[in-house]
Amino acid sequence: MLLEVRRAGAGDVGVLASVLAGAFVGDPVACFIFPDRARRAARLCRFFEIQLRHNYLPRGIVLTDVERRSCSMWLPPAPTAPPLTGLLAPAMMPLLVGARSSSSRLLARLLAARHPTAAHWYLGTIGTDPAVQRSGLGSALMREVLDRCDSEQLPSYLECSLEDNVIFYARRGFEVTEELDVPRGPRLWLMWRPPRPPPTAGEPLCTRSAVPVRWPAGRHRVGTCGVAFSEGPQRVTGRTPPGTRRASPTISASTSSTARTGAPGSPRRRWATPMRRGASPSTATKRQRSCR
């Protein structure tokens, strides 16, 4: 499979909308907005068609691979003003796509109140055909814009709707700034990525390809592939993006029990891979070397 990335155009809208619909048909946010399971895929396809045609293509950057099996939609720090059709489309979105209007309005209001005001690149959506997921397509699409963020020294921001993807984004430099529980809805992880500083002279390139999970305290080891080997109870506290007000006084995830999934009070799960009990430092060192 070719991992060549290119800019998408108007002729790609139909194919990419279908790919994104297939990727998000089981997403918690999609289930919240489109509760009718039988019609969810068709309504998601229509939703992404509108987003592509009236929002991201005229105002931002839409990337895909040569086989059009994946898609990412970005907005730059200063997107152009949407045309009249672009203004009308979001207002009529629930009616056009058959979404639950109360749920979509609630979600939009909560996310808008927390969206950073500082200049940044915004990753609105990224998805891959389920048949070819975990093949590197998503990473290739992200790398294209994240490299630009680093060269321009600009941060980036996204909202993650699946806990399994938190580590995926963390390894690319994103940090959880807030865990948002939508009333009677899903949990979202709001994530911010500061730009990486330019590489120093003589720095090995392999150390730039992975970002370790940042642990503020406690004994730990971090391999170059971003896996933290924890030796004790620790807490990970996210960074608040400039211009963003936290909704709660403390935003953190405990690794001593595990990160939350589902509704409040549900079982917790680890975000980082712990060292096995009884493992020696030499074992952890071997693990780190295997990542290089």
Care to describe what's here?
The protein has 292 residues and is of the alpha+beta class. It has a domain at 5-154: Aminopeptidase (3-Layer(aba) Sandwich), CATH 3.40.630.30. The chain has helices at 13-24, 28-33, 37-59, 84-97, 101-114, 137-152, 164-170, 281-291; strands at 5-7, 61-65, 70-75, 121-128, 156-160, 175-181, 187-193, 220-222, 228-230, 235-237, 252-254, 259-260, 268-269. Strand 8 and strand 9 (228-230) form a beta hairpin. The model is unreliable at 206-237 and 246-292 (pLDDT under 50).
Give me the secondary-structure topology.
Elements: E1 5-7, H1 13-24, H2 28-33, H3 37-59, E2 61-65, E3 70-75, H4 84-97, H5 101-114, E4 121-128, H6 137-152, E5 156-160, H7 164-170, E6 175-181, E7 187-193, E8 220-222, E9 228-230, E10 235-237, E11 252-254, E12 259-260, E13 268-269, H8 281-291
Parallel strand pairs: 4-5
Antiparallel strand pairs: 1-2, 2-3, 3-4, 5-7, 6-7, 8-9, 10-11, 12-13
Helix pairs in contact: 1-3, 3-4
Entry summary:
This protein has helices at 13-24, 28-33, 37-59, 84-97, 101-114, 137-152, 164-170, 281-291, and strands at 5-7, 61-65, 70-75, 121-128, 156-160, 175-181, 187-193, 220-222, 228-230, 235-237, 252-254, 259-260, 268-269. The chain has 292 residues and is an alpha+beta fold. The strands form four sheets. Strands 1-2-3-4-5-7-6 form a seven-stranded mixed sheet, with helices on both faces. The chain has a two-stranded antiparallel ribbon with strand order 8-9.
